[in-house]
Amino acid sequence: GVGVYLGLLKSCKQMNEKVPRELTKLYGSLSEEQQLNRDLAELLVGSRLLLVPEFDALLVKHLQGPRFAHALELAVQLIRQCVVAKPVVSPLEMAGTLDVLSKVASRPGAPEAIQQLIERVRSMFPAKDAMKAPPGAVPARKGESDGLRQRVIMLFDEWTRIIDAPAGMKYHASFAQQVQQSGFLKDDETVEHMFGILTEICVAHCLSSASGAGQGQFSFVAVDALSRLIVMLSRFVGERGASGMSVRAGLLARALSAATTVLHRHASERNIAFNSRPYFRLFAGILHELSIPDPQLDSSNFAVLTAFAGLLQATQPSRVPVFCFAWLELVSHRHFMPKLLLAPNQKGWSLLERLLTAILRFMEPQLRNAELSDPIRLLYRGVLRVLLVLLHDFPEFLCDHHFMLCDAIPSSCVQMRNLVLSAFPRNMRLPDPFTPNLKVDLLPEISQAPRIVVDAGAAIGDTQLRADIDKYLKSRMPATLLQDLKSHFLYSPTDAAANGCRYNMHLINAVVLYIGMQAIQQLHNKTSQLPVQVNQGVPMEIFLWLVAELDPEGRYMFLSSVANQLRYPNNHTHYYSCVLLYLFSESSQELVKEQITRVLLERLIVNRPHPWGLLITFIELIKNPRYSFWSHSFTRCAPEIERLFESVARSCMGATKPGEEDLTSKIAASTASA
């Protein structure tokens, strides 16, 4: 009779997945005596007609209640029959009961049968020392129960048994359901706690696998298993389809947040002894798993990219310096950076800009004086290569975000800045700057405005200063603005000591761009094409005053800021080129002319690429008799300087002597390669 009813219930379960839930509710309404009936419980649990995690919670209550003895007998029988002898139930599903039995077995005078049973359960897990950290390597944190940690370890051991099983997706879905039913995903705090424990265990295992204080060959078995577990759970939680996407992406974000917290703690505790390899492997493994197309969740989803950008923002070099090399590798990862840049509507561009400026600002104190240690030199080369990739594959990104990137690049990094400024849209064909009698102002592209994503007015920061500039551009009032600008440009003594210079380069960059954009707008309000002469109007008066009144340090920064706008053909490049040439011709100070020449020349004598606007400005300066360039004494101040100018001049004039280096071909090639 019992077998017939059991068969009927199994048939009902096959037709309706809700049967186990309803039976579990019915079982919970029975009397305590009926609930603790060993035969009934074994039949229902062994046939999986009950939700085992909920039954486990009910049994734990009995084990903690007045009918402890009966409940203990039932618990021992169920574990022996359904977990050990005939493993139809995962130890993870009975984690609460096993936790209580473990405590009972550890008491003095505990029954030997219970001790043996617990040892048998533990021996079921892979004797994969690969998955276990050495004793004491991962102590329990304050407020963390041994029971929770044990349940998490059991979960991970169970995962490692099925991770590569045939028909893996079927097992993965079942495992994800078990994890949910066990309460590990019930709230954000529990999720982060679980992944935090797993991160600690896997990192400890990885580090302990190498011989001798982090040296030797590492085993990444546990770390790889964790990365796959994170992605698997992120794909199986929530409702199927787009409706559950936010839940799945949210779980991934919390897992990354938990790993980030552990990384921060370990970096703080271990300092220079910190080893970033396990964390890099973990995050790179997650990126690799997410690169596999999946309708539920993959790296084409912008929420996934945002979660990773948040991870990288939280672990940026200024916060975790010992992670900087792994960090840069993750930023430029083939499964992250290209997908971030290819996200719809360029939504990912601002995220990448913030990441790149973060590492540039981190390196700035070391790069400022060009005295590089070996690690910083290596990091600099890495950043340079990332920018080269962007110049080749995503030049529009560098075009749009050139202001913020150049604002973060130290003035000493001429080649890096040239690389950013050499970018031009892929649909544009650059005119040859060495074309004889090139009429720049007649080029069709020269009247078009470039795309600038930064708000130059907001970049000024001081709203009152911006308001005063706007008023001065319209009415030349307040009369004190020019002096005010000079005082605003200067750092306080404390800030000057911290920044290694007296002038606020960020403010100078913002003011130069803002005033120039206002000037270009005024010129276009009068005529449809940008005129060659830009020497009239308040903006030029401001520039003339600054170049005359600033000291050499401030003037160099101002001129460098102007030169940062010499890029591909557009109306900004044309305007600022005219500004530099006009400042050269109108200045009565030889030092000003020399500094303008220095700013242009130092950008030309470094390795390619060279910005198109820089080339046409310098060629115009040395070829046009209006500027009398060769009459100035600074072109002949030393034999090597004189030879340098003559060589550059010959390349620009197209009169190269036999046997001498043809700089024309070099510079032209650099422009074409950009």
Please tag this protein with its features:
0% strand; elongated
Protein described:
With 674 residues, this protein is mainly alpha-helical. 65% of the residues lie in helices and 0% in strands. The chain is built from 34 helices and no strands. It has helices at residues 2-15, 19-28, 32-35, 38-46, 52-63, 68-85, 95-106, 112-124, 146-162, 168-181, 188-209, 221-236, 245-270, 277-291, 302-314, 324-331, 337-341, 349-367, 374-393, 395-400, 402-408, 414-421, 456-460, 463-475, 481-489, 493-499, 505-526, 538-549, 552-563, 571-586, 590-604, 612-623, 639-653, 663-673. The relative contact order is 0.04. Residues 126-139 and 655-674 have low confidence and may be disordered.
Element layout with pairings:
Blueprint: H1 2-15, H2 19-28, H3 32-35, H4 38-46, H5 52-63, H6 68-85, H7 95-106, H8 112-124, H9 146-162, H10 168-181, H11 188-209, H12 221-236, H13 245-270, H14 277-291, H15 302-314, H16 324-331, H17 337-341, H18 349-367, H19 374-393, H20 395-400, H21 402-408, H22 414-421, H23 456-460, H24 463-475, H25 481-489, H26 493-499, H27 505-526, H28 538-549, H29 552-563, H30 571-586, H31 590-604, H32 612-623, H33 639-653, H34 663-673
Helix pairs in contact: 4-6, 5-6, 5-7, 6-8, 7-8, 11-12, 11-13, 12-13, 12-14, 13-15, 14-16, 15-18, 18-19, 27-28, 27-29, 29-31, 30-32, 31-32
